[in-house]
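Now read this:
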Amino acid sequence: MMRQYLAILFAPLVLSGCGVAVEYGDIPHSQLVENPRCNPVETDRNAVADKNYFAVTSRLPDCLGEAVSLTNHRTDRVRFARFAPPEISANAKGKKQTRVPLAFQPEADWWNGLREASNLRKGRVLLYVHGYRETFLSTAKDTVQIAELSNFDGPIIQYSWPSQGDLLSYAVDETNMYWDERNFRNFLTKLARQQWVKEIVIVSHSLGARLVIPAVEYVDRTSSNADSSNISNIILASPDIDREDFERDIAEEVLAARRVNNDRRITVYASLNDKALAVSRALHGYPRLGSPYCFNPFEANELKAKGLPERCFATKSTYETQPEKTGFTIIDTTDVTSGGSGHSDYLRSREVCLDFAAAVNGARESPGRIPTHIAHVFRLKNIGKATKEQVAAFCKRAAD
């Protein structure tokens, strides 16, 4: 644990010029994808039979071994796959290892499978976009947890971009995230334009917000459906995105009044105890949307003088004609933060798990929300102490 905290403390120094290098590896990348399993021309029904989760990935696959896996490198094309919950097994030396059962499909077959699954659930789809320091294994665990926690009534897709899964590779992750903007934008555009997709719930974590928001803006600008109304429910968990940039640009497209009135909304989960976003703020120089840090000391002093917590949040958009519905809500999780870094409250805090599950399923209110002096900001009621095991069970979290 101490090593982890020291790494966080020294991360800005590492990222400023001494970052972890990305190694190409010992095998040409072209050899990793030569096996037809990486580029199937038809679906192997036996391979996808028990894989009920959908994946879209720009990670380089490795199809050399018995099981298909995904590396942390970029690839030359986006691939479509089905996967099952991670499995624990023993390797040749008897040591336990966890793997994600994965099978690629031709793109057309993948879309047909998604359509069939969506039509069974009234056209609802959930799209999960992960953040910094993730592997395909870790995001698969999170995807399954989101499904079980929310009991979401529809197919769930994880979009997996080449994050390195390494604490000190933030700069690499940020670079790969920006590299992948076009891939994700194109995928979201195609998803939103499917007539059978009636409702898209997007959940993003950390750096994932910087993929999601520009992509939604693009879909809104280019959609033949003037309101892009099937992208209805956007949830940003611990978003690592510039707060002022978000405030300035969000009203123009993503939360335009006509879209808010068509049920478009954004829910943000933010914590002042988020150590990862504190490092990101130090690196970028300005506050992140997912952290209510008061950049302006005079604003902080005013809050203190009024007996209010020194927490500053993104403001709501100003409209010429106020929408009939509420389009922007911030949930301040500072008082109920759980976990070492405080960066994943939505999956590690009982109070936040409860609220998050409700938000995924479209609830605009939750019994645990406590109003604050700001109309669009809510705190969460602390429901008491609990052991790590109790929290894990409540949040449907698998053992790490």
Q: What stands out?
A: Residues 204 and 212 are 7 Å apart (CA to CA). Confidence is low (pLDDT under 50) at residues 13-17. The longest strand covers residues 69-83. Residues 136-150 form the longest helix (15 residues).
